[in-house]
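Final report, closing paragraph on structural work. Over the funding period we assembled a curated collection of sequence-structure pairs, and we close with a single example.
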Amino acid sequence: MKILLSSPRGFCAGVNMAIECVERVLKLKGPPIYVYHEIVHNRHVVNHFSEAGVVFVNSVDQVPRGATLVYSAHGVSPRVRLQAADRALTQIDATCPLVAKVHTEAIRYARKKFAIVLIGHRNHDEVVGTFGEAPDSIHIVENVRDVYALNIPEDHRIAYLTQTTLSLDEAEVVIKALRERYPRIRGPQKEDICYATTNRQLAVRQWAEECDVVLVVGSQNSSNSLRLVETAKERGVPAYLIDDVSELELSWLDGAEKVLITAGASAPEHLVQELIEMLKAQFDAEVEVRELANEDISFQLPLSLRKVELQQLRS
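Its predicted structure, as stored:
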């Protein structure tokens, strides 16, 4: 067997920043600390932090007054921030800056009285948070059918934004339909779909058809990981999403001579390496690294964390 190991894969800059935030708050405050929703959508990461004393909550009401609350990489709505302030919580904002950019765009368009079409998955944490910035102005669409169900006058000022972890294929089709229906629609100056999502999908687009099977390491609730599976399947290649090597079914690999391995933006690298080691042992597999792009992006830790660290030093 030959393994094509896709690079880049795994953690993106936003995930690295969010995880470091939780680690530093844990060290600073000691357990328990609270995180609003999963810090990133990966079962292994969440389990690791749960064992270290992190409590993941779905409501601000679950956090004791005066405690520390970290916001996940997916962002939150202004309503959540107000609720946290009412409970005198120390708020640490680990929102990915690329998600925060979409929030800013939504606020800007809403102030200018635009109708905003948000392309994304309605119940995803990121979309829920963005929608909360301007609920009276935002219309969520998931597909072309939703585009043609929109009830926005054609002469109204209108703009679109997208969830950062969308499928490129899916987004292109929906944006095309929006432009056909609303020729004057505005889009973001720089595409909202994040660089990591784009790079990982482009790599699958480029190399999947060389392979018999695509294996994606990531969790089932990880939007960007699911999109990698869809990207391969849309090119006629069997693809499977696994949390780790224990979920691999060897029957998927019957007759497979070439396997593409990649990982979603919230999947730890050690899970990829464990999968590779098993394939080496089971199939005498050889690894060829394929690099699409060199990701050297990093994000500064949020000001809210740096302020808390400074206060701790002074006390």
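The mean pLDDT is 96. Residues 13-29 form the longest helix (17 residues). We thank the funder for supporting this effort.
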